[in-house]
C-alpha cells in the first residue's frame, strides 16, 4: 500500500468518524431543541393559566371591595344623612358595573367555576338593587322604610351568601394556582435533569473532538479570538444596559419627586381656602354671634366643624400618601420606650377615661421610629376612644416570637407577633377586612370623631415594614389587633424589579 493509499484510507476513516460525530451531534441537538420547545410551550401554557387565575382573583376582590364601599356609603348616609357618604356611595355603585363586566370577560379553566362566578355576580346585582332601593327611599324622605328594610336582616343574609361564595371561588382559584406552580416546579426539575444529561453527552463529544484535533493551535487561536470578541461584545451590552437602567432610575426618582411636590402643593392649596372659611366663621361668631338666632349660630357652627373635618382629612390623606415616599431610614427602635412615650402623650385622655394598661415585655426592632410611634398611637387611641360607657377601658399588649410560612410560599420566617387587646365596644367580625380601608367608619360621626383613615394608615405602615395586621372582634366584648413584623428587616420602599 502506497503512502497515498494509506492517506486515502485514513481520510476515509476520518470521514466516517466525522459523519458519526456529526450525526450524533445533530441527533442530540435536535432532541434538545425539540424538548426545549416542548417544555417552553408547556410552561407558557401554565404561565398563562397562572396569570388568568391571578386576574380572576384580582377582579373578584375588586368587585367585592367595591360592594363593601357601596354598602359603607349607604350605611353612612342612612345614619348621618351626610352628602359626603352619598358621594362615596355613588362612586362605588358606578364602579360595580365596570368590575362585573371585567369579571365576566375572564374565563376560568376550572370545571364548574364559571357557574359559581355567575352566581356570585347575580348575588352582587341583587345586593346592589337592595342598596339602591334603601338610598332612594332615604333621598325621598322615607328613611323609616329604608331602615325597616335593613332591619329585616335580608341584606345581612345576602352579604353572608356573597362572602361565602367569594371565599369559595377564591379558594378554588388559589388551589388551582398552587397546583400550576407545583406542575411548573416539577417541569423545571425534569428539565434540569435532562439538560444535565444532554450536557454530559455534549461534554463527551467535545472531549472526543479535542482528542481528534489534539494540538491544533490554529483552531484554538480562532476559538480564543472568537471568545474574546464575544466577551467584549457582552461587556459593551452590559455597559449599555447599565446606562439604560441608570437613566431609568433617575427618571423614576424625578417622577417621584414631582408627584410628592404635586401632593404638597395640592394639599396646601386645599388647606388655604379652608383656613379662610374657619377664620371668617370665627369672626362672624365673635362679632355677629349675638345678632344671629339659634338656627343661624347652628349653621355657622356646622360650617366651621365641616371645614375643620375637611382640613384634618386632607392632612391625614397627605400623611397616608407619604408613608412610603417620605419614610425615614430604619433604625433600632425599643418598643417599650415607644409605648412609654405614647402613654405620656395620651395622659389627658387616659385620665378622662380612667383607662388602665397591662404592657408586657416588648422587643427592639429595626423600623422607622416615627411611623411605629404613629402605628401604636392610632391603635391605643382607638382602644381608649371606642370604649363602653359603663366601664373604663383596659388595654393589654403582649409580644411573642413565632414561626409562620410566607403566603403562597413554603418558606418559613420568624415574626414578632404583638397583640393589642381591649374591652371596648368591639365590632362584627364580618367587617374585619373593611376597617382597614380608607374612609371606613362603623359608627356615626356624632358618636365617635375621626376621618376614617387611621387604620388604613396603620396597615400601610405595617406593610412598609414587611408585615401584616389583622383584627378579631365580637360586638360588646372588645377587639384584638395582631401585628406581625419579620425579625429580619424587610423594607418595601423600593419596587422590586
Mean pLDDT: 77
Strand order of the largest sheet: 2-4-5-7-6
Shape: elongated
| Low-pLDDT stretches | none
Q: How far apart are the first and last residues' alpha carbons, in Å? A: 71 Å
Estimate percent helicity: 55-70%
H and E order: HHHHHHHEHHEEHEEHEE
| Main sheet overview | 5 strands, mixed
Total number of beta strands = 7
Sheet/helix structural class: alpha+beta
Percent strand = 5-15%
How many DSSP helices? 11
Could you characterize what this model shows?
The chain has 497 residues and is of the alpha+beta class. Helices cover 69% and strands 10% of the residues. It has 11 helices and 7 strands. The chain has a 5-stranded mixed beta sheet, covered by helices on one side. Strands 1-3 form a two-stranded antiparallel sheet. α1 packs antiparallel against α5, α3 packs antiparallel against α5 and α6 packs antiparallel against α7. The longest helix is centred in the N-terminal third of the chain and has 78 residues. It is elongated and about 120 Å long. 18% of the residues are buried.
SSE topology sketch:
Elements: H1 3-80, H2 83-105, H3 113-139, H4 143-151, H5 154-213, H6 217-288, H7 294-321, E1 331-334, H8 335-345, H9 347-353, E2 356-359, E3 364-367, H10 369-385, E4 394-405, E5 412-422, H11 454-464, E6 468-474, E7 478-486
Parallel strand pairs: 2-4
Antiparallel strand pairs: 1-3, 4-5, 5-7, 6-7
Helix pairs in contact: 1-2, 1-3, 1-5, 2-3, 3-4, 3-5, 6-7, 8-10, 10-11
Amino acid at each position: 500500500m502506497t503512502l497515498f493509499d494509506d492517506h486515502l484510507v485514513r481520510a476515509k476513516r476520518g470521514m466516517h468518524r466525522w459523519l458519526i460525530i456529526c450525526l450524533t451531534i445533530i441527533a442530540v441537538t435536535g432532541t434538545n431543541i425539540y424538548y426545549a420547545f416542548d417544555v417552553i410551550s408547556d410552561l407558557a401554557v401554565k404561565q398563562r393559566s397562572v396569570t388568568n387565575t391571578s386576574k380572576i382573583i384580582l377582579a373578584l376582590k375588586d368587585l367585592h371591595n367595591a360592594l363593601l364601599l357601596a354598602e359603607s356609603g349607604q350605611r353612612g348616609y342612612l345614619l348621618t344623612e351626610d352628602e359626603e357618604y352619598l358621594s362615596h356611595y355613588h362612586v362605588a355603585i358606578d364602579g360595580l358595573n365596570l368590575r362585573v363586566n371585567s369579571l365576566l370577560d375572564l374565563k376560568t379553566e376550572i370545571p364548574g367555576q364559571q357557574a359559581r362566578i355567575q352566581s356570585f355576580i347575580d348575588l352582587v346585582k341583587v345586593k346592589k338593587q337592595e342598596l339602591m332601593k334603601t338610598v332612594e327611599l332615604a333621598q325621598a324622605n322615607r328613611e323609616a322604610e329604608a331602615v325597616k328594610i335593613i332591619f329585616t336582616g335580608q341584606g345581612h343574609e345576602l352579604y353572608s351568601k356573597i362572602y361565602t361564595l367569594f371565599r369559595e371561588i377564591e379558594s378554588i382559584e388559589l388551589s388551582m394556582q398552587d397546583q400550576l406552580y407545583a406542575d411548573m416546579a416539577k417541569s423545571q426539575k425534569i428539565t434540569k435533569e435532562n439538560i444535565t444529561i444532554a450536557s454530559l453527552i455534549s461534554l463527551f463529544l467535545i472531549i472526543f473532538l479535542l482528542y481528534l484535533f489534539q494540538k491544533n493551535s490554529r483552531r484554538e487561536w480562532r476559538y480564543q479570538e472568537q471568545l474574546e470578541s464575544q466577551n467584549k461584545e457582552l461587556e459593551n451590552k452590559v455597559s449599555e444596559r447599565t446606562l439604560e437602567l441608570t437613566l431609568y432610575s433617575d427618571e423614576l426618582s424625578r417622577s417621584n419627586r414631582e408627584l410628592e411636590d404635586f401632593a404638597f402643593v395640592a394639599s396646601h392649596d386645599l388647606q388655604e381656602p379652608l383656613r379662610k372659611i374657619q377664620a371668617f366663621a370665627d369672626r362672624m361668631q365673635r362679632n355677629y354671634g349675638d345678632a344671629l338666632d339659634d338656627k343661624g349660630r347652628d349653621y355657622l357652627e356646622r360650617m366651621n366643624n365641616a371645614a375643620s373635618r375637611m382640613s384634618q382629612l386632607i392632612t391625614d390623606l397627605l400623611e397616608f400618601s407619604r408613608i412610603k415616599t417620605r419614610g425615614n431610614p430604619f433604625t433600632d427602635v425599643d418598643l417599650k420606650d415607644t409605648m412609654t412615650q405614647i402613654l405620656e402623650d395620651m395622659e389627658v385622655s387616659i385620665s378622662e377615661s380612667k383607662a388602665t394598661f397591662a404592657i408586657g415585655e416588648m422587643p427592639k426592632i429595626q423600623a422607622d421610629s416615627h411611623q411605629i410611634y404613629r402605628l401604636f398611637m392610632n391603635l391605643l387611641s382607638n382602644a381608649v376612644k371606642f370604649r363602653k360607657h359603663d366601664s373604663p377601658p383596659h388595654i393589654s399588649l403582649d409580644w411573642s416570637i413565632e414561626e409562620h410560612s410566607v403566603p403562597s410560599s413554603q418558606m418559613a420566617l420568624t415574626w414578632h407577633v404583638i397583640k393589642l387587646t381591649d374591652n371596648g365596644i368591639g365590632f362584627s367580625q364580618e367587617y374585619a377586612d373593611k376597617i382597614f380601608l380608607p374612609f371606613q367608619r362603623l359608627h356615626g360621626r356624632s358618636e365617635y370623631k375621626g376621618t376614617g383613615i387611621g387604620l388604613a394608615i396603620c396597615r400601610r405602615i405595617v406593610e412598609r415594614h414587611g408585615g401584616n395586621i389583622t383584627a378579631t372582634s365580637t360586638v360588646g366584648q372588645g377587639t384584638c389587633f395582631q401585628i406581625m413584623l419579620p425579625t429580619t428587616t424587610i423594607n418595601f420602599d423600593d419596587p422590586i424589579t
